[in-house]
Design brief:
3-stranded antiparallel β-sheet; Rossmann fold; 17 helices; 9-stranded mixed β-sheet; 441 residues; elongated
């Protein structure tokens, strides 16, 4: 039986096999490796709708990240800033400039890394107590997220409250005595936590009326409750505040919120430390959330862009402000470019419903080859269903027509993709298309 090469879409969209799309005032041009007359462009408006690159390891995502970053950095202005979560160090090596900031704990970046200052983040909204106290509590909640037992959350929650209030205590002391401002750095804070016993906590919390309720967590310091709370506190401190994150700021005091506010055309490269794996995830997550918080707090009248480049979104689970950035960041100049190996990684981090909402917040999708069935089903569902008419010759050599209901992008379309090839769906464009991206050496 010979199937005719002629295939007609009767109803619904169609997966195109070529691309020639030029949008007004484009910023990034993608060329087809195999065809000179095939290309497409993206402009600032499309980037503000955000881009998701979905595909398995080795499918070609990193190459397209490089193509995108190379052109965006060549066009960025003093009103722009890039926040880059760099899991392999490739982006910093390729696109780092002298004026850029790198924040990395591994041996390769330790000497050149800026020294993050937690207090500068807490005080980034000013010295009014209602502002810095709220910031301290929000940051503490982020660092303790996921710690402790789900059935017995008391110890982690109590440790979180103590951590936040010690930060507030340090700031109050600096306000009362300007000489103590030199204590407002990570090194002094972490030294306190590692050296303080229950008596020291009792001493500082008795100084302020609004902190005395915290004494119920500690008692006389000898009971099992006190040991459990302080043990949880030291566990978080010892896990997260290691390497450059526990040092003073002699090599460059750094606040990511201040950097986002200042912009200056710089890029901030947050380097994932493979040697400690997920241990530092709470710090990385907090840094990205702080950057998003600052970006989302901008006035709609402010010029410039905040590009958030996340080549492995799965390594930043449960970002508090990600869905807000995707759904409301457009008018504030926030542009998210994220990579993901499987939609299940979103579902594992955020749950099925919220994970689906987050995935749907990306207006443009580059779907590379993946062996993950859930991801292929998501892409098929994303582009919807259609009805296709086929004509073939029957055994009696008479033409036969059949109609079949299926998907615009079938599972076999995705499995047939070659390395560097993707199904591209651009926001507001009616039909997706298959595209072979050129290679950037």
């Amino acid at each position: 039986m010979e199937i005719s090469r002629k295939k007609i879409t009767v109803w619904g969209g169609e997966l195109k096999r070529e691309a020639k799309l030029e949008v007004p005032e484009w910023e990034v041009l993608y060329r087809n490796r195999d065809r000179q007359d095939s290309f497409f462009t993206l402009n600032e408006e499309l980037f503000s709708r955000h881009i998701l690159m979905l595909g398995g390891s080795g499918s070609g995502k990193t190459n397209v990240f490089n193509l995108t970053m190379n052109q965006l950095r060549a066009r960025n202005t003093e009103n722009d800033i890039f926040i880059v979560f760099d899991t392999k160090g490739d982006f910093y090596r390729r696109f780092g400039k002298k004026e850029d900031i790198v924040l990395g704990n591994s041996r390769e970046y330790r000497a050149s890394s800026a020294r993050w200052n937690l207090f500068d983040e807490v005080l980034s909204d000013g010295t009014a107590p209602e502002d810095y106290e709220l910031n301290a509590k929000e940051m503490a909640a982020s660092l303790f997220a996921g710690r402790g037992s789900e059935t017995q959350p008391f110890f982690a929650n109590a440790a979180r409250d103590i951590f936040a209030n010690v930060i507030i205590y340090f700031i109050r002391c600096a306000e009362e005595n300007s000489e103590r401002k030199k204590l407002l750095n990570n090194k002094k804070l972490i030294r306190f936590f590692r050296g303080a016993d229950s008596k020291k906590y009792v001493e500082i919390f008795q100084r302020y009326a609004d902190m005395k309720s915290l004494l119920s967590y500690i008692g006389d310091g000898t009971g099992g409750q006190a040991l459990g709370v302080l043990g949880e506190l030291k566990s978080m401190v010892n896990d997260c505040f290691i390497g450059v994150f526990q040092e003073d700021d002699q090599n460059g005091r750094f606040s990511i919120r201040n950097a986002v506010g200042e912009k200056g055309g710089k890029a901030i490269f947050i380097e994932y430390d493979l040697t400690v794996g997920e241990v530092l995830t709470p710090i990385y997550r907090l840094l990205i959330d702080l950057a998003l918080k600052e970006a989302l707090g901008r006035s709609e009248k402010e010029k410039g862009n905040v590009y958030l480049v996340l080549d492995e979104l799965k390594l930043l689970p449960k970002l508090q402000h990600l869905d807000d950035a995707l759904n409301f960041g457009r008018s504030m100049g926030v542009k998210v470019i994220a990579g993901l190996q499987s939609v299940n990684q979103l579902y594992d981090s955020y749950g099925q419903e919220k994970g689906t909402v987050i995935a749907g917040g990306f207006g443009t999708v580059f779907a590379f080859r993946t062996s993950d069935n859930a991801s292929r089903e998501y892409i098929s569902g994303l582009f919807g269903r259609n009805v296709v008419s086929f004509q073939y010759t029957g055994i009696d050599r008479q033409p036969v027509k059949r109609e079949r209901e299926g998907y615009v992008v079938e599972s076999w379309d995705q499995l047939a993709l070659k390395k560097g090839q993707a199904v591209v769906g651009i926001a507001d464009e009616p039909d997706p298309f298959v595209f072979q991206f050129e290679y950037m050496p």
